[in-house]
Structures are given as structure tokens and as C-alpha cells.
Amino acid sequence: MIGSLDRGRPLIVLAAGGTGGHVFPAEALAQELGDRGCRLALITDRRGGDLGGRLGELETHRVRAGGIAGKGPVARLRSAVEIAFGTLQARQLLKSLKPSVVVGFGGYASVPTMLAATYSTVSTAIHEQNAVLGRANRLFAFRVQKIATSYEKVSHIPETAVTRTVYTGMPVRAAVKDLHGTPYPALSEKTDFNILVFGGSQGASVFSRVVPQAIERLQHSHRERLKIVQQCRPEDYNALSADYDRLGLRAEIAPFFRDIPQRIALSHLVISRSGASTVAEVTAIGRPAILVPYPHAIDDHQAANAHAMDEVGGGWLIPDEALTAESLAHRLRTLLKMPRSLQNAAEAAKRAGRAEAGAALADLVLRLVLGNDDQLETREEA
Fold first, then answer.
1. Top-level CATH class of 177-352?
2. Which residue positions in the chain have pLDDT lower than 70?
3. Which of 335, 315, 169, 325 is nearest to 247 (CA)?
4. Can you give the pLDDT at residue 6?
5. CA nearest neighbour of 288 among 250, 338, 361
6. What is each CA distance from 141 to 129, 164, 372, in whole angstroms?
7. What integer pLDDT is reported at residue 372 of this predicted model?
8. N or C: more exposed end of the chain, with fewer CB within 10 A?
9. For the segment 264-290, what is each residue's pLDDT rounded down to a tens digit?
10. Contact call for residues 300 and 132 (beta carbons, < 8 A)
């Protein structure tokens, strides 16, 4: 681990915004670098809302930005204009701020800043949250000094960039990191069985429809063991609540839970989408999951994330089109009868998680600050 830096406290700029998958790792890195005494600034897009946590405390600058996967010529033209203006704004900001390193976290919000940074003399790095190199990050893979990845195997990394790629893991929030050592809840064929269901930032109406139908197909002795905590879209709340009341289930339903990390830790099984933050948090805490990739994710990156977890034995992948009441009921019946398989999967998930990924990414960034990035030693998971 590289400790705090003096040298006039060099400035590190983070380029992030958009969904939680891009924001949470930036927040975790900001926490780690801030604790080491680094000066930090954030450049994000103008459309994003106010950011909370450590990012909300940073000196923040907003530039224009546009999606790079827009549909239709008009949308693409508008995006190109926004990116061009945003890049000019970012270029002026970087000239004024004079950072030592700029770190991008993918997504359209990072594009103008990373364009400006990679065509300047400042050191640069990008972090990829998924098992597929995102489209924004692909733009810069040829020019940045380092590519940090959340998975050991990431597709779409150019061959010329392999030697500059470092597996750091996916940085997680402090609330998640603090729960890394939480033991798996006691489980037998007689105990309560806690299931957490949530859809991530994309939501998942399919869970509100299929999960109660699947539970209805279970035998009574299995149903009475279940305790359900489920995030649902507001428009699905009444119907879902009525379904669980009709089945006589113990269920807590809400459109949003502020304490998702704690809910993950209390669960025996998670049913969720497979976005980057979700998989990182589930594995960092060490809980088995049934993962149903969002079918419209760009480049099908959620399927790649779920495959990675399935391959190490930390969960089970069910494609969205294969998620039916019967397929889910079959999986639940098997797990309810075989608690040891859940415990094994929990152990595998924890082995796959990297609770210290934030520290590993901070080490990489500080080596760039020091101008010594050739022999980066990534820390082993504790």
C-alpha cells in the first residue's frame, strides 16, 4: 500500500457521473485517496443531480456531455455537439486545475474530460466496472497509461493495451467494505430463509411479477420459512403487496432501501440484476445470488458479469427470457432442500469479491502521481 503523499499535495481529478455503477467506484476511490491526504476534484456532466457521500464533498465542476450510443443521425449529431463543447470546457478546466492524474470511470459523463486529458500531457487512467470494456472506456484504451479492471478477464481490451491493464477489482462503498467479514446467517432446513430481491438502478418489474408466482408454486412448508425483502417500482407496489398478502408471506416491500448493504448481509439469497455495483457488493459481502441480467444493457455487459459469478460458483445465472415462475420455483426448491449448497456459494462469492479494491486502485493512481507505474503490486484479498 502506498501511503499519503506530500510533494505539495498533487491534485487528482475524477471524471465520473451517471448511474451508480460509474459513481460508486469513484466514491470509493475518493474516500481512499482522501484518507491518504490527496487533493481531489470531480468533473461530471451538467445533467446529473447532486452527488452524495465523499464525492459530494469534493470541488465539483460540470461540463456538457452527450451519449455516445445515441440512436439515429439527429441524436448522434446532438451528442457530438455536446461532447465537443464539453471537451473544450474540460480542456480549460484542466489547464486551470493542473492535475497530476485524471481518472475516468466510463459512461458518457466521463467522455469530455477524458478526451481533453488524453490529448494533454497529464497522466491518465480508466477504471472498468464490468466484464466487458464499456464503449466510453474503449475510446481511451489506446491512450491512457493504465486500465484498471473489476474482473480478471475483461473482453474488448485491445491487445496493445493488455500490458497496461491491472486487475484491481471493483471498489465498493465504505458501508459495503465494513460488512466484508460478516458471517453467513445460520441456515438449516428448519430455519427462516431470508431472500432479498432488487433490480438495481434499472429497476425490474419482471421480479414483481415472477417472484410471487414462483413462491406460490412452493409447498407450504417451504413458503412458511420465507422472509422476503423486495425493492419494486412504485407502479408495481400495490399489486406485489396484494400478492404477498394473499400468500400469507412475511414480506417487506419498498421502492427504495437506503440500507441495501445491511440487507444483503442479512440475506441467505439475493435475487437481482447483475449490474457492476450489485455484483461487487454481493461478492464483497459474500452472499449467493440468482442473477438475471438486464437484457437491454449495452453490449450485454450484465450477462458477462453474471457469467463471471456463475463460473466461480458464487451464484446462478438465469437469462431474462428464461426467468419464469416455474424455472425460479425449481431453483428455490433445490436451494431450500440443500442449505449447504448456499453456504458453499456464499464462500465462493466472498472469494471472488475484493473488498480492498479501493485501496488497490488508489495504489495504482498514486504510482502514476509518483511517475512509477511499471511495477504495480496489487494487494491480495484479505
1. alpha beta
2. 2-8, 47-50, 68-71, 200-203, 372-382
3. 325
4. 52
5. 338
6. 14, 9, 19
7. 58
8. C
9. 999 999 999 999 999 999 999 999 999
10. yes
Q: Which pLDDT value is given to residue 189?
A: 86
Name residue, grid cell 464503449: 135
Distance of alpha carbon 336 from its chain centroid, rounded?
Answer: 28
11-172+355-370: CATH class: alpha beta
Q: Residue 249 has which C-alpha cell?
A: 408471506
Question: Do the domains spanning 11-172+355-370 and 177-352 agree at the CATH topology level?
Answer: yes
pLDDT in tens, 11-26: 999 999 887 788 989 9
d(CA 222, CA 220): 5
* Domain extent listing, the chain: 11-172+355-370, 177-352
CA distances from residue 16 to 137, 169, 343, 372 in whole angstroms, order as listed: 12, 17, 36, 25
The beta strands (E) that lie in the chain are given as 11-15, 39-45, 59-63, 101-104, 123-128, 146-149, 165-167, 193-198, 226-231, 250-254, 269-272, 289-291, 315-317
List C-alpha distances in Å: 293 to 207, 226, 276, 313, 360.
Answer: 12, 24, 11, 17, 28
